[in-house]
Amino acid sequence: MLSYDFKWSILWTDPYGSWMLEGIWITIKLGLICWFIALILGTLIGTLRVTPWKPFRLFATGYTEIFRDVPLLVQLFFWYFAAPRILPHTWEMYLYKGIPNSEFWIVVVGLSLYTSSRVAEHIRAGMQSISDDQYNAALSTGFTQFQTYRYVIIPYAIRLVIPPLTTECLTVFKNTSLAMTVAVLETTFMSQQVEAYTFHGIEATTGACVVYMVITLVVVMIMGLVEKRLAVPGLITRR
Amino acid sequence: MGTFDWRVIYDNFPFLMQGLLTTVELAVIGITGGLLLGVLVGMARLSSRKIIYYPATLFVNFFRSLPLLLVIFWFYFLVPLLAGRPMGDFFSASVAFIIFEASYFAEIIRAGIQSISKEQMQAGYSTGFTYGQTMRYIIVPQALRNMVPSLLTQAVVVFQDTSLAYVIGVKEFLRSASIVDAREMRSLELYAFIGVIYFVFCFTMSKMSKRLEAKKGFAK
Predict the structure, then answer these.
(1) Which domain holds residue B151?
(2) CB B55, CB B209: distance < 8 Å
(3) What is the pTM of this model?
(4) ipTM > 0.90 (yes/no)
């Protein structure tokens, strides 16, 4: 075994400590924005997958299959390196140079689309578990199709799928680490930058690990509260 | 906007396929290694002995709360330290994949074993089998068959996850495309191409798992 000189103080001494803090802030920002967009988009796509209209269903199925079956990193590279090439040259230049933090927003696009397809799968499963009677009952009270989904099916389905959505929310925060590959300065990127300056890779990476574990714990706690709050009365739920 | 030039794929085809081969190798190592370790950890998660249960639970929850990217970096720094000499990026990545994916496989296997009824276990004991024999000959084979759809889904995930080995410089599919891109400046064609190949692989595998799911129920 090689001797290794542990020096944990690199995690809080200047400037490395403030780098890590900046990274944590970006990780949280990125995770929250992507989660918000993915939840809305995923609910929409998931609903389209169970509607009675075939073109909508086909579109939604294609959407989920494409975004689920290509690795996230490849998708990020596609949005970052390849997709801007389709734009006219002046737009492409504007995207890279005119927009501050363009790489951050490109990751927001990639990660939101990817996560929305996974959210859509959970929403679909939730909706399919709701019996047809609910749907028919809503229609028979005079609701339109849209109202039925808006007021009966979707609220019910979302409450049913909160546990898998919790897992998905954790996955979003873990997946934000991939943003480092396109130079978004989030936690993982910063930890590797600390490594590059200090050669203390194990400490820096362990520090980042602790950050993600704390985020995981906080998300699990919040979602646990949400789950209790929104539990459907009469179903088996966790106490 | 430049015109499309798909020749770049044709010209660099052998190099790209070498990358794809590395990806497949990593995936096979990750799936078999992760599955073997996962079976052990999954069984340990069901143990009534605390000294076995707690470490296994800690292992699973620890790795499931971390991003794979960090785990890869971590082993990249840790493996040479433990081995006492540089081991190369492919080896470090393999270790990271086996350990990380094992924590996910373990949860699938635990759920699978729990889906087998208790009577099977008692029947095993009553024929004179030991715990190990009952597990080996009765429970695990049935549980594995029940778990095939979930395991296949996880295998797809492992296959996609191998792309993360990019970050420590393993020349897998994505890395080889980005190497070609750095020279040829044909991002659109290259990333579209590897996206399609990944899609074909993963789509076929997930369709297979869906079909198996429809047929399941042979061991309850």
Answers:
(1) 7-214
(2) no
(3) 0.88
(4) no
